[in-house]
Amino acid sequence: KALGYSVIAGSASVKLPQLLKVFNSGSSRGLSPVTTACELAASTVGFLYGLRRGFPLSAYGEGFLLAGQTIAIAALSIYYARGRSLGLALTFCAIFAGLVALLAAPSLVPLAVIAAGQACTLPLVLAGKAAQAWRNFSSSSTGQVSLITYSMLLLGSLARVFTSVQETADPMLVLLYLGASAGNAVIVAQILYYGGADKGRRKEKSG
């Protein structure tokens, strides 16, 4: 439980470096929209699944915090990509909040629907990580992708493999975090590898 709550505490700021990197640069270059969408869906459904199943908060609480930070990154990306359209970014956030409120209501959405969504989170996570990894590979650059954020995501997903076994014994959750750990490890390795190439290109341009 202590490890689980530590993951939740760490998740409160895990995507803040990524958010600040996009904000400070005024660009979401290098970030895959597919990855952002998949991560948003997976973290939201993961939180709702744990909530509706009555799991201990220490087993799933970071999903809410990750979803909140991911929606902020998505909104900021929309804002910059669409000519700084604040209205479009806020509309996106409002639609997302309404959908979450709907899914959280047991009287409106049965648990079976949330469970079906949870069963889709593994392919969603894998697809999201693969999309970001392919984008990095195809452009030979990681752009504004944050090393700090993905390193923290890697550590968190590894810790979640253990806490999921101990606190839920839910094979879907264990497989989900194993897949997330593998994807995060690949992206961290790419950031380290392509980061040197990015610095070299910046030096050439400045020279």
Question: What attributes characterize this protein structure?
Answer:
single chain, 207 residues, Monooxygenase, 2 domains, globular
Concise account of the structure shown:
By secondary structure, this protein is mainly α.
Q: Can you tell me about this structure?
A:
With 207 residues, the chain is mainly α. The chain has two domains: 1-109, no CATH class; 111-197, Monooxygenase, CATH 1.20.1280. Helix content is 79%, strand content 0%. It has helices spanning 2-11, 16-25, 33-53, 62-81, 86-103, 111-119, 121-139, 147-167, 171-206. The model has no long low-confidence stretch (mean pLDDT 87). This is Mannose-P-dolichol utilization defect 1 protein homolog. Belongs to the MPDU1 (TC 2.A.43.3) family.
Summarize the topology.
Elements: H1 2-11, H2 16-25, H3 33-53, H4 62-81, H5 86-103, H6 111-119, H7 121-139, H8 147-167, H9 171-206
Protein name: Mannose-P-dolichol utilization defect 1 protein homolog
Family: Belongs to the MPDU1 (TC 2.A.43.3) family.
Membrane topology: Multi-pass membrane protein
Number of helical regions: 9
Q: How much is the average pLDDT?
A: 87
In the predicted model, the low-confidence regions spanning at least 5 consecutive residues are: none
Total domains, how many? Answer: 2
Relative strand content: under 5%
Percent helix among the residues? over 70%
The dominant shape is globular
Oligomer: single chain
Write the H/E string, N to C: HHHHHHHHH
**Can you summarize the main beta sheet?**
none
Computed CA radius of gyration, to the nearest angstrom: 17 Å
Please count the beta strands (DSSP E, at least 2 residues each). Answer: 0
Which structural class do you get from the secondary structure elements?
A: mainly alpha
- Our measurement of the CA-to-CA distance between the termini, rounded to an integer number of angstroms, reads 53 Å
